[in-house]
Structures
1.
Amino acid sequence: MSDKKNRKNNNRNNNMDEDFNPKFRKVRKKVCPLCADKNLILDFKNADQLKKFISDKGKILPRRATGACAKHQRDITLAVKRARQIAVLPYTQE
Ligand SMILES: [Zn+2]
């Protein structure tokens, strides 16, 4: 009886492996890239710099992806939107 129970638990634990279950994923605290580097100033003419903050479809990445703080995420959004306006960055990508 107890053997059977143990085996069952083991199976469940194997299925809920660290790699598959997001519950066990190690959480690393993200540091805002703009707070971490004080010398880094967002420039809407610098496409290479802003490309880090947009997806391959050209969308602005959310904070959970960029790791930016609220203040800097607003700056990023503004810079990307300005860059699109002057055709440095695309609005969409096929
Ligand atoms: Zn920041």
2.
Amino acid sequence: MRTLGLRLLALSTLSAATLSLTTVGASALTPSPDRGTTCVEPGESAAARGGRETDHRDISAAEQERIAARTQRLLARQDTPLPAAVAAAGAIVPVYVHVMAAKNGAGDVTDTQIAQQVQVLNTTFAGGESAAAADTGFTFTLAGTDRFFNDTWHRDGSSTKYRKATRQGGADALNIWLVDFSYLGVATFPWDYARNPGIDGIRVQYSSLPGGTAANYDLGETATHEAGHWFGLYHTFQGGCTATNDEVSDTAAQGSPTNGCPEGRDSCTLPGLDPIHNYMDYSYDTCYDQFSAGQSTRTAQMWAAYRA
Ligand SMILES: [Ca+2]
Ligand SMILES: [Ca+2]
Ligand SMILES: [Zn+2]
């Protein structure tokens, strides 16, 4: 609810046409004409981090099953690298940051902020924020920064076009486009790379970078969350309160997203309290402090299957 002002402000400045471009190949995500005024309901925690829509394309339970089966087939076919070997070796991920600023300079984040953002990725994926956090073995190195001053791109308009025009590197390169839109972030999944490599990466609200102005979301951990999707992690509330849930056994199943940092929250009758400190929930940046060991294993498997 404390994010309401920010979200409403952002939403009210965006057209439905712009919003329709913020998701990838998701026919379910069609803009509704009233979203500018009624998108964010008080108390609806889902509004906090991803906006009303999810921050990645919708994945049904049936598709989730198909993706899991495909991943297992791919891993079974591979001689190397084994997921454990990937994690142990600590793959280095080149990061390309694309600053999509407005003509008047809005969104033109500093090189220092970008360096700090990469540092946040390194800290969070190394488990540096909690004794309970897993070290995923992935590290990040800034491979390039480019800057554009284009009002349409700044607002995430023509996102397919601008991503295809600016994306760099292969499947293992994390491209981050910094924009101003109704989301904190939007991500593509690794299993979609082969089908549509030109748009692979994450789009992140520029004000969520360290030193930014996105209240409660200004420590750079939106990029951590979106990168989590990019590595193949689901939300901890994926599929709701079900045994399948996020396909990660050591993150307690969650019935709904978290907003803020409510200690002891339990939105699902299945065992365990909600993993509110997990980067793949919707909690505040100050609440986030961990990926789990199971998520770490999953990122290594997804890397081996789709990005290595
Ligand atoms: Ca789980
Ligand atoms: Ca529970
Ligand atoms: Zn997400």
